[in-house]
Amino acid sequence: MLNKNHIVFFRSIVGEEDCKDDAIYLKSYAYDSTRESFEPQCVIFPKNEEQISKILCYCNENFIPVVPRGAGSGMSGGAICANGGVVLAMEKYFNQILEIDEKNLLARVQPAVINKTFQNEVEKVGLFYPPDPASQDFSTLGGNVSENAGGMRAVKYGITKDYVLALRAVLPNGAIIQTGKKTIKDVAGYNLSGLLCGSEGTLAVITEITLKLRVKPKFTQMMLGLFASIDSCMHVVYKILSSGVTPVAMEFLDTLTLKAVQKKMHRVFRDDAKAILIIQVDGEIPEIMDYQIQKIQEIFSQNECLESHIAKNTTEAQEIWAMRRNASQSISIYGKKKLNEDITVPRGNLPSLLKGIEEIGKKYGFKIACFGHAGDGNVHTNVMVENPQDNAELERGYQAVEEIFRLAIKLEGTLSGEHGIGLSKAPFMKLAFSDAEMELFRNLKKAFDPNNILNPKKMGL
Amino acid sequence: MLNKNHIVFFRSIVGEEDCKDDAIYLKSYAYDSTRESFEPQCVIFPKNEEQISKILCYCNENFIPVVPRGAGSGMSGGAICANGGVVLAMEKYFNQILEIDEKNLLARVQPAVINKTFQNEVEKVGLFYPPDPASQDFSTLGGNVSENAGGMRAVKYGITKDYVLALRAVLPNGAIIQTGKKTIKDVAGYNLSGLLCGSEGTLAVITEITLKLRVKPKFTQMMLGLFASIDSCMHVVYKILSSGVTPVAMEFLDTLTLKAVQKKMHRVFRDDAKAILIIQVDGEIPEIMDYQIQKIQEIFSQNECLESHIAKNTTEAQEIWAMRRNASQSISIYGKKKLNEDITVPRGNLPSLLKGIEEIGKKYGFKIACFGHAGDGNVHTNVMVENPQDNAELERGYQAVEEIFRLAIKLEGTLSGEHGIGLSKAPFMKLAFSDAEMELFRNLKKAFDPNNILNPKKMGL
């Protein structure tokens, strides 16, 4: 699709140094965290909005696919070139924090700033950026916006879209637009910032993000509860939230995951513990911390909690977090390949979801390890395939995954809570959306991108 | 545009009783709170989604404008028929609360449920729906979603879009769609719920809304501070928010408004009080209430606060609220007609905004009374026209308004914080948006509504 002349044009815009088509670059930019791999035909490092505008304009006229890319750490194939064309690699020149505005509790950043770098910088001046996807150490804020990333702290503080006040972006026709303002309230024109959040790079190339900040809470505390059943563990989640206590995070590990984590961390809990709930609370004064912890312990004790622990110091708090952070790695003892998804259901349906998943595991003959964000109904399900080289077994694994999607939708849930659709879940869009809804998505994409050059084939469009 | 045959068709769908074209109905449905008036040619009361689907389908084929309408209490002309056609009056059959789900902290409602009715119902079971536009006693939740309504409690709890989890809606082609899920996290497909919020009835007819709820806070407290200058009053706003205390509401009255309110309420404050700040805080335990109040008083005392009061009981709390609620009415002593707008700027720019507005008042020879939501930078500006029958004076008034819009935009603000654009602010869209942005809005509207039948002429489209 791409020929020498195109490369010559790109080099006239960004210079030879920043337009690469040698094999090593094409390979390096072919993958993301899904381990699917499609090579681009050219990797461009744009220096500014004007260059992006010229490149998009040209690609639009020449029907050349363009895929904007941050860290390439996405979990659904959003940043890979399913259809050849050009990668717009933002990490080289769009990695600056432009402004931290303490007066208005907001910041302006370029899209390739790493999430954790940003968190650290705002915390230096006593501020707080809550969205903390598991990939926070390497994923970019632009990627977070494009996938509408969640994280552990979503229970109390919401997800990426709740922090995006304004964006600058370049449209496929080369126009540079601004969406939203530096204000909490803005009802002039359509809510394009809200629409671009989670649009997976299919509508526009984001070049600047204005993010709302909070003041960093003075106190935080970690605790955990061990439960006799996954059911009572899930029951506790909504009991706590209904009590008026809103923890920062409420993370669970199911029986399989709990066992695996204990093994990995050489830590042994009691045998009758079938599920664990990890909770973080925060607040401005010690009394509100005590109040929340007491309330949670009260609810624990009324719901088959076998025992609970409160972190006595930072080290203990880190140990508790480490159990959750090790979950994903530790379950690899159950199989060489894990088919992991991030379905979400209304919290009240978590017990039915987990029961259903257990049955799907039995039906297809797989261990399915589940853990994740109980506080917002977002469960990371992992179908553990012992012999992925066995095609029949792998195929059965994918069937189990499809059945998990069907179950989530039946329980009024969604295909994805935070990873996005990208390529990986594209075939399942038809389970979740009607023909009319899919047609509307396509029309909406056309309104931004009539020639379908931006990140084609993603989201099942 | 509409002829007898069309009416015959509508009656075949909804029955004669629910399709009215007599003068009294056309008059009754011609206005909203802007006092602009355009008569529809027919008022239809649809009973269900299927009827709406059939009507939209027919109107789409016949290029008949359709304006969905709740209470008709909008402040920007969103619910009036600028182009003739049909009003879809939702209040008769779409006024039910369908479900209050205590387990998942959410509710499903039909669009014509009154905001305050809904608040009251959820509070009966200990829950809380924060968005509280000034029109809460009569405006509908569907109208609130369509205009993305704000309110007093936005400082701590956000605005309507922060509570919309899912929608059902009918497209101009008759298709019934669902957007979003009963989950906090959902990143499958484009964020259509976010886009429909604030779309002013131009994209789809909303038929059902799933709203997030919170647990009702146990304690609330009202207080007020009198300030020697509007500047110090505004300064205090961001000082409080930067301290880590987030009040539920922070409302201010400027010197003119404060004087008028005192007169109306027969209450006299000290002469040197030039501005008042009304603050509500809430919390789960008495200690956190004390902490917040102390912190606020500390900041008050460091910033030219002349005196402060804390409500000792419910009556006193209501008296404090009444000062704010009476603001809009009481300023009528300054002129027969008020040209009121609801611009919003980043909080840190409030002092510059109010200084600029004072200068605009002097330049054009008007008193401009300002009050409103200091906590989120949303100011209700009122250009007071003494002799509105004097065309030259009125014209000068509109010039002052336009200059206020220009000032707000210069200060990185927006034309509207909560009222929407509708017809009233349509001429000013070009001040706030580039040609490329306006074209994108139009393309986006076309993606939903290619024949431009839904609420035409609104938003400057």
Automatic annotation (TrEMBL), chains A, B:
Q: Which UniProt key words apply to this protein?
A: FAD, Flavoprotein, Oxidoreductase
Cited Pfam families:
FAD-oxidase_C (PF02913), FAD_binding_4 (PF01565)
Q: InterPro entries annotated for this entry?
A: FAD-bd_oxidored_4_C, FAD-bd_PCMH, FAD-bd_PCMH-like_sf, FAD-bd_PCMH_sub2, FAD-linked_Oxase-like_C, FAD-linked_OxidoTrans_Type4, Oxid_FAD_bind_N, Vanillyl_alc_oxidase_C-sub2
Could you say which cofactors this protein requires? FAD
**GO MF term list:** FAD binding; oxidoreductase activity
Q: What is the top-level taxon of the source organism?
A: Bacteria
Gene3D superfamilies, per the entry: 3.30.465.10, 3.30.70.2740, Vanillyl-alcohol Oxidase, Chain A, domain 4
Checking PROSITE patterns in the record gives: FAD_PCMH
User: Is the Oxidoreductase keyword given for this protein?
Assistant: yes
Q: Which residues form the FAD-binding PCMH-type domain?
A: 36-216
Belongs to which family? Belongs to the FAD-binding oxidoreductase/transferase type 4 family.
Provide the protein name.
Glycolate oxidase subunit GlcD
